[in-house]
Amino acid sequence: MLSHVFLVQWELSYDCYQCHQGGGHCQTDKTNKFQCTDAKTTKSKLGVTLGAVFGGVGLVMITLVVSFIWCYKEKKFSPSRFLLTKKFSDIFKHDVEGGSIYFGVLVFSYSELEEATNDFSSSRVLGDGGFGTVYYGKLKDGREVAVKRLYEHNCKRMQQFVNEIEILTRLRHNNLVTLYGCTSRRSRELLLVYEYIPNGTLADHLHGNKAKDGSLTWPICMNIAIETAGALAYLHASDVIHCDVKTNNILLDHNFSVKVADFGISRLFPNDVSHISTAPRGTPGYIDPKYHECYQLTSKSDVYSFGVVLVELISSMPAVDMNRHSQEINLSNFAINKIVKCAFHELIDPSLGFDSDTKIWEMTTSVAELAFLCLQTDRDMRPTMVEVLDTLNEIQTSEFGNEKRTESNINATEAKIVTASPFLESEDTLSLKQVKSLPSPNSVTDKWITCSDITRTK
């Protein structure tokens, strides 16, 4: 508190006093010389100043709005928007370590999954992929899970982490693997948690550590083909391309029911675009050659890969085998060469009953011919996954190959087929009823008669 009173005094010059009395403002310029400014002039200058300021602000706002609209349109119509529909910042804006739900799935702590996998013990490894290692785990609530641990050296691990979460949380199908949850992106490592499928992969049973003669009977193989085709048809109807269809990504439960897995490089693909231009990614032996050549991804790329899977199912051979002839290292080329020659005995695994059961002979050769269509070099000649699924169902119900076969169900007998292999010789036999020479590897053949239409002789 003030304990003394003091006075403040100042002297006003006569000129300044006269200026003030006249309604002006007493001012000094930069040289400290007296100036008497009229009040109206001052207000006018103030108005001009404020007008310039607000005008500049308005111009900046208009520029920002126009830029935003332009960027929005560019993003809306750019194919790149289909790779991921949300920015990382949008996806993770509610991402909090320790939160219970994030992006529609459970959030697990790193320590919880570390304990579930016994500190990521090598004895718990279920398999290694191109982007991570999968471990068996058991949660505290007793659930068995598969934990994918993305490689640290993978520079695109965050994109693949987000991609798989986004795609699997929007899809629901009995033959697609279920995603239980994940760690936070701020966690020590990026981990994805799936339902555990106990019976390994289709590759394990065909030519891996679970392969045994007779373990995969033909009815089981047919069901696997149909369920996988159904899952892929569902993906395509949901505007998703898997991009890495292969027997290692087809999981089997104890009843040999299919669970398609691994969506790390899958793509969202709305049906209002013809293709996505992107560098080819996938697994050697399964990659669509047109995709590899033109860098254009379509749903028919999955169809090609599924064609390779069909050939593996009927042959029990791997997609790539360096011990085969140099022009037949890829199973697709090997199969095409055998199919166009009707040399099914050199392609189809005899343990399926090909040599002993007429019904199985007819079904396996029909599946081989369907695979031939899927493996066409010209994408337009390949069927859609819906057509593939319909045909497989007809083969299973014995409607394929008899009088019920129609053009709408991929009538290979009446269709014009473009041969898919660049390695076919010019004198290959296309029909056992009428021998025709093949003038060019890419020529169109008239009324190609399938080998399954020929009466089997024993």
Automatic annotation (TrEMBL):
Keywords: ATP-binding, Glycoprotein, Kinase, Membrane, Nucleotide-binding, Serine/threonine-protein kinase, Signal, Transferase, Transmembrane, Transmembrane helix. SUPFAM superfamilies: Protein kinase-like (PK-like). GO terms for cellular component: plasma membrane. Residues 120-400 form the Protein kinase domain. The keyword NAD does not apply. InterPro entries: Kinase-like_dom_sf, Prot_kinase_dom, Protein_kinase_ATP_BS, Ser/Thr_kinase_AS. ATP binds at residue 148. Pfam families: Pkinase (PF00069). The chain crosses the membrane at residues 50-72. It is found in: Membrane. The keyword Transferase applies. Its main location: membrane. It comes from the Eukaryota. It is a single-pass membrane protein. One of its GO terms (molecular function) is protein serine/threonine kinase activity. Belongs to the protein kinase superfamily. This is Wall-associated kinase.
